[in-house]
Design a protein that fits this description.
There is one protein chain. This protein has 524 residues and is an alpha/beta fold. The chain has four domains: 138 residues, ATPase, nucleotide binding domain (Nucleotidyltransferase, domain 5); 125 residues, Helix Hairpins; 120 residues, no CATH class; 63 residues. Helix content is 55%, strand content 9%. It contains 20 helices and eight strands. The strands form two sheets. Strands 3-2-1-4-5-6 form a six-stranded mixed β-sheet, with helices on both faces. A two-stranded antiparallel sheet has the order 7-8.
């Protein structure tokens, strides 16, 4: 996939570096001397770990030892390491832990709480440093030796302290994504059983799960014979009694299918029963997904990523997922750091005169971040006029669909970085017909039945993130909504009407009190 045109001027090459910036230790080694600098290497498992203590030169100061993941095991290991430090006059130490899902967490936290600097080495790095020395011999002890070699060569990487808001967003967004995938699997299994007891029903009515009426008929009637017996009038009456909106054209299609339906596959009752059980499961997951989406809005408003809602094509869910995967924007010096971490650049193979610059996207990257960015890119291509026109132009020029998605993703990263890092609503053609951030938050909260007090807190937090220049513009739809709510009479309480005046006040917008009926206008 060609991601760069040969005619375009290539970017300036980055200076050659032998070490990862977050893995450099040599200034500290020079400060105390190699014989006084040591590395604690940790190879983690679920319930226990192996540790090795050696100096910079590789002289073993503490033989490989097994440490149980409990307080007693950690206290014993820490005492052994401190005794070895005193015995060998070690002045500076780093702890390098191999990442192992979440199982390295207890070790990492234990050493951090004890005052040690903890670094992380990727299992892929451990493997590459083990293979030259111990090919075909993979043990915990050979892994420890490989971890030491990786650390002294700058591949034990410092990780920033976790940001609580980002961690919360990441956990919620990933859990939601898992539930969405599980629900899709359940719906596919439902369609298989539906095909057995109501053959070809799903194709005659389109999207079964997009129409409550169509799904209600499958649940409650469950056969072509029952539909024929009810006929159009009876079916319409039953659907109305169920409290569903009736579309005559949909019911006519269902009755027409029933009159010409193929025989069902026995046992019909068992297929229908499994269908109903799967349906109950997917409905529960739909409720869980909606609840998680409602929970995403609060943490999102505490981050500058809420400004991305001003772009057409980005909603609360996609902005929250991006915020969770990226973490604080201060960790990225520029937009290229985002695309680099997400692996949104072509792989390269060069040897002598052979130089294949434009390969496929690199395989080793943060795939969760890449997924969040590509999801936004897809939405922008579908919903945002600017990106829609760009994509159409690239398509006419013969660009591959995958290339177009990556181009849009890269352009979004540059725009999004300016907005989030600069704490501003970016003036760009893609935002010429932008969305109102606060209005989008309100509509999202109403759709998800968010409690009024939570909505008020979310709006307050969002206003605090808005640049002052955007306050008056953001107040326009809120003032219109408040006026509409104040005109409504006799329809019960309106919590939003009590929230909006406070939000408008925070936006520094003066409200004119509406006149009561019969009250004279003081301006006349």
């Amino acid at each position: 996939m060609a991601l760069n045109s040969p005619s375009k001027k290539r970017r300036k090459a980055q200076p050659h570096a032998l070490h990862k910036p977050r893995g450099v230790i040599h200034p500290r080694v020079q400060a105390v001397g190699p014989e006084h600098f040591a590395v604690v290497c940790v190879d983690c498992a679920k319930a226990r770990s192996r540790i090795l203590f050696a100096d910079f030169y590789g002289r073993v100061l503490l033989e490989p030892t097994t440490v149980e993941h409990n307080r007693s095991g950690f206290d014993t290991a820490l005492k052994s390491i401190r005794d070895a430090m005193a015995r060998h006059r070690i002045q500076d130490v780093i702890v390098v832990v191999e990442r192992t899902g979440r199982y390295h967490g207890p070790v990492q936290r234990a050493f951090r709480q004890a005052g040690f600097e903890v670094r992380i080495v990727h299992p892929y790095t451990t493997k590459q440093y083990r293979l030259p020395a111990d090919p075909g011999n993979k043990t915990d002890d050979t892994d420890l030796s490989a971890i030491h070699r990786a650390a002294v060569n700058g591949f034990g990487l410092l990780e920033p302290e976790p940001d609580p808001v980002s961690v919360q967003l990441q956990l919620l967004a990933r859990h939601r994504r898992d539930l969405v995938r599980q629900r899709v699997v359940l719906q596919q299994r439902m369609l298989e059983h539906l095909q057995s007891f109501m053959p070809d029903y799903s194709s005659c009515v389109g999207d079964v799960f997009g129409s409550p009426t169509v799904l209600w008929v499958a649940r409650n009637l469950g056969s072509a014979a029952a539909i024929v017996e009810a006929d159009l009038a009876g079916l319409s009456q039953q659907v109305r009694q169920a409290g569903l909106k009736v579309y005559p054209s949909t019911l006519e299609k269902i009755v027409a299918w029933a009159r010409s339906a193929a025989p069902a596959e026995p046992p019909v009752s068992l297929h229908h029963r499994i269908f109903l059980e799967l349906d109950a499961d997917q409905l529960q997951k739909a409720r869980n997904i909606a609840a998680i989406e409602s929970d995403l809005a609060g943490p999102l408003t505490q981050t500058p990523y809420v400004l991305l809602l001003g772009l057409v094509g980005i909603n609360v869910v996609s902005a929250a997922e991006l915020a969770g995967e990226m973490g604080p924007i201060e960790r990225y010096p520029n937009a290229r750091a985002i695309t680099g971490r997400a692996g949104l650049f072509p792989s390269r193979y060069q040897s002598d005169q052979v130089d294949r610059r434009d390969g496929a996207l690199v395989r080793h990257a943060n795939h969760d971040l890449r997924h969040a960015i590509m999801m936004i890119a897809d939405n922008l291509i579908k919903c945002n006029d600017y990106f829609k026109i760009l994509a159409a132009g690239w398509r006419l020029n013969g660009k591959d669909a995958r290339d177009i998605r990556v181009r849009v993703a890269g352009r979004f990263c540059r725009i999004g970085y300016q907005m989030v890092a600069g704490r501003m609503t970016f003036q760009h053609p893609c935002a010429r017909r932008g969305d109102y951030i606060l209005d989008k938050l309100i509509r999202f909260s109403l759709e998800h039945s968010t409690a009024p007090d939570q909505l008020a807190r979310d709006l307050d937090a969002a206003v605090a993130r808005l640049p002052r220049a955007a306050h008056r513009e953001e107040a326009v739809p809120l003032a219109e909504e408040l006026a509409r709510l104040q005109k409504r009479r006799g329809t019960g309480p309106h919590p939003l009407a009590t929230i909006l005046p406070a939000v408008l006040a925070k936006l520094e917008v003066n409200l004119v009190r509406s006149l009561e009926s019969g009250e004279a206008d003081p301006t006349e």
